[in-house]
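Known limitations

Structure tokens in this collection are predictions and should be treated as such. Users comparing against experimental data should check residue numbering before alignment. To illustrate the layout, the record for Parvulin-like PPIase is reproduced below. The input appears on top and the generated tokens appear beneath it.
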Amino acid sequence: MSKTHTLSGASALALVLALGGAAIAQTPTPAAQPSVAASVLPSPDSVVAKVNGIPVTAGDIAVAAEDPALSLPGVDDAQKKGLLVDYMLDLKVGAQAADAAKIGDTPDFKRKLAYFRDKLLLDEYLEREARKAATPEAARALYDQSAKLMKPEEEIHARHILVENEADAKKIAARIKGGEDFAKVAAETTKDAGSKAEGGDLGWFSKDRMVKEFADAAFKLQPGQVSDPVKSQFGWHVIKVEEKRNKPVPTFEELKEQIDQALIRKAQQDLILKLRADAKVERFDENGKPIAAPAPTPAPEEPKKP
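Generated tokens:
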């Protein structure tokens, strides 16, 4: 959290942040705030409060609400808006005090202000420009291209029984191969607490999800077959494969959010590289002397034709 945020140390919002939301039920919101917070404000310039004559607007609250440091999971919208008003009042009155103390006139503050201005400008610019790349057409094209490269991956639906020694595993395998129900025996004997209540059911999984010894044995079985005892780092297993299938390719809708983010990241990277390539960059050492730019890497020569 930045120094600016800590100005609200005595506010209801700071209390919520410190206690993880536990204080909400104990800290009543001032009577005037719920109506302001719950109402639909007509414009960003609408004044929701004032401190020493300085207004706090709906736009100020909206900006604060986007700050990750001020996220309030589990808090309803009306409470959150009221708490953000408290925070902005503390922020404004703290900033007034800092301004009166001439904090803004110091070289160190001016450098920080310039840095954060540049950072905010870049973030907004990248966000605006990159969003243009995440069009429905581009998203669909990337999905279609990726789907073609997805190789079918085998999955199995299996059960297992885990015990500590080989002798017990052999006895259990014999019982099941003799006709006893696998799920019933698993519920009675397995040491795997995670699957015991489900009769040893592990659900669907691909080969890379399991330790090698287990996966190698399981994927050799056909549906309905039961393995001989298999040793892994966890103990001894008896495995039964229920079903096999090729893992379904995720749908476009399932991957849409990931695809959009990939398009945005790629567009941002390309934009930064272009801006850097078009800019005149000069570097200097600690004595202020120019540092020679590294020589560009030569392009590889094309192989000569015979």
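For this record: Residues 252-278 form the longest helix (27 residues). Residues 104-150+249-277 form one domain. Please report discrepancies through the issue tracker.
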